[in-house]
Write a structure and sequence with these properties.
Blueprint lengths: L6 E4 L2 E4 L2 E2 H8 L3 E5 H14 L5 E6 L6 H10 L2 E4 L2 H9 L7 E3 L6 H9 L4 E4 L2 H13 L4 E8 L21 E2 H13 L3 E7 L10 H19 L6 E3 L16 H11 L6 E4 L3 H4 L3 E12 L4 E5 L8 H5 L5 E3 L8 E6 L8 E8 L6 E4 L20 E6 L2 E6 L4 H5 L7
Parallel strand pairs: 4-20, 5-6, 5-13, 6-7, 7-8, 8-9, 9-10, 9-11, 11-12, 12-13, 15-17
Antiparallel strand pairs: 1-2, 2-3, 4-14, 14-15, 14-19, 16-19, 17-18, 20-21
Helix pairs in contact: 2-3, 2-9, 5-6, 7-8
The structure holds pyridoxal-5'-phosphate (PLP) and lysine.
Pyridoxal-5'-phosphate binds next to helix 10.
Length: 417
């Protein structure tokens, strides 16, 4: 089982856990992100159990969905975190996450962010360039600290995914080329305020095959062997995130098969295994609830104009990503082929093309698989307040982020007088 679904029809009504989505729309309005805490809990446990006796740490990639309630839920389950900014660090701390289970990735860490992470005593910096290593050493020295470091190595492996979310090929900006890793590790080993602790790679997102993970892990293990001969001790091996989910007809490996493959390849290595899953932890645990405002039938096309838009859910516009769109109440009437579009003034503002649905004005729709890179990539384009977020736990519904108001949007703006 690659993910757990808490969204199902009872008679003709779509439910999340024990709550009808129509009830959520009536109480909190639309657009609204809806998450299932059971789905997140179950998925975390599937990851955790799949490691068996193997020493491991799951560092959830905060960028996928950084709502405090989700971070707190994962922290209570024992999860660590992968962060890419000082802002994400602050969220992890605020949500009760353990800095000693937190790794800091990203090519552009600022001195302020480095200071904050050193002050918080995070587990490890995933360093992405020689220059960053030097800056980290200098700042750690000024603070009287020793910075724990993994080098993020770019293994030059094709992840076979959308080019915008492939990160482990030599032309990508991420990581240190494998050919330079040995030299930079020996430099790190000698720097007075750096403690080498791990080895890291992350080759991309929404991978639907195991082979690229194995190819990258193989390269990491070769490097690990070389580092050992150089006298560099590696305590943990971080194999990144990237496991895909099913949006449409993809058939990604199950979580169990993926973890088993990683554990098998690293079988003879005593290092702790770290992973940084984002999408596979929360993607199928959330949906975006939206209401049909207008139906427009032209001689060319049928449009369903809904109240969610590309500012709420950017993935279709940015990657031509497919998200399944389900009616909250199944209807028996005549179906038409609809373009599901939002109110934003961009032709690229769509949530789905060519969907066969029977619709009437005010119907509710659920944009599925929206738990990852949905709310976290949302914006206020067209001065649209961001959607509310709710989390369902059995029959209880918690508002975990209130809908923004327009006043919130211009609260920091000033007239030049
Ligand atoms: C360094 C790093 N780790 C982890 C992730 C999480 O990836 P995913 O959501 O595909 O599991 C990402 C995003 O691709 C990333 O850049
Ligand atoms: N934002 C992307 C994934 C990028 C992962 C970040 N490294 C998506 O929505 O699919």
């Amino acid at each position: 089982m690659s993910s757990f679904s808490s969204f199902e029809y009872r008679d003709s009504q779509l439910f999340v856990e024990s709550v009808p989505l129509a009830e959520i729309a009536a109480k909190f309005g639309t657009p609204c992100y809806v998450y299932s805490s059971a789905a997140i809990r179950t998925t975390y446990q599937i990851f955790d159990h799949a490691f068996g006796q193997r020493d491991h740490l799951i560092c959830y990639a905060v960028k996928a969905n950084s709502n405090l309630a989700i971070l707190n839920l994962l922290a209570r389950l024992g999860s660590g975190f992968d962060i890419v900014s000082g802002g994400e660090l602050q969220r992890v701390l605020k949500a009760g996450g353990d800095p000693q289970k937190t790794v800091f990735s990203g090519v552009g860490k600022t001195p302020e962010e480095i200071r904050a992470a050193l002050a918080a005593n995070i587990l490890c910096f995933n360093v992405e360039s020689e220059m960053e290593l030097m800056v980290l050493n200098e700042i750690a020295g000024q603070m009287g600290k020793i910075a724990p470091v993994s080098l993020r190595v770019n293994p030059d492996v094709d992840a076979n995914t959308h080019p915008y979310i492939s990160t482990g090929m030599k032309e990508n900006k991420f990581g240190i080329p494998a050919a330079e890793a040995g030299r930079i590790y020996s430099l790190a080993h000698q720097l007075p305020h750096i403690q080498v602790s791990g080895l890291d790679c992350h080759i991309g997102s929404q991978l639907t095959e195991i082979a690229p993970f194995i190819e990258a892990a193989d390269k990491m293990l070769d490097l690990l062997a070389r580092l050992q001969t150089m006298g560099v001790t590696i305590k943990h091996l971080d194999l990144g995130g990237g496991l895909g989910i099913r949006y449409d007809r993809e058939s990604p490996p199950s979580i169990e098969a993926y973890i088993k493959a990683l554990c098998t390849i690293a079988e003879n290595h005593p290092q702790q295994l770290l992973i940084e899953p984002g999408r596979s932890m929360v993607g199928n645990a959330g949906l975006l609830l939206t209401r049909v405002h207008y139906l427009k039938h032209t001689s060319h096309r049928n449009f369903a104009i809904v109240d969610a838009a590309m500012n709420d859910m950017l993935r279709p516009a940015l990657y031509q990503a497919y998200h399944s769109i389900l009616p909250v109440t199944k209807r028996t009437g005549e179906t038409k082929t609809y373009q599901i579009v939002g109110p934003v003034c961009e032709t690229g503002d769509f949530l789905g093309h060519d969907r066969n649905l029977a619709l009437t004005k005010n119907d509710l729709l659920a944009v599925m698989s929206a738990g990852a890179y949905g709310m976290s990539m949302s914006s206020n384009y067209n001065t649209r307040p961001r959607a509310a977020e709710v989390m369902v736990d059995g029959s209880t519904v918690h508002l975990i982020r209130a809908r923004e108001t327009v006043e919130d949007l211009y609260a920091l703006e000033k007239l030049p007088i």
